[in-house]
Amino acid sequence: MSSEKEASTSTTNRKLSCSTCFDALWFCYSPVHQMQQYYRLGVLDNCSDKWRAMVDCLLLKTKHASQVQEALETKEKSKTHIWTFRTPEEASYHWKELYGHLDEPEL
Fold it and tell me: pLDDT tens, 77-89?
């Protein structure tokens, strides 16, 4: 029972660490990352999103623990999911729209 309590408190009381933001910022300026971005997108990365994440993390470090937890929960809830969830009917409709021509017999 105590392990359940520890698991629930560990998910609610997350420790804020800026080392991941710093690592991402450091890697952003590496030649490997910049060449990947140039190859994929045709432009170099200015790393502004990494700087923003680092500054946000450092600003959160100055806040009270309850404010940090609220900010982290709000950030977690605002993340958009990479998948679009559909009902079976919606999925069937979109599947037929995209690949329905494959079911038609060839002439």
Answer: 887 877 888 899 9
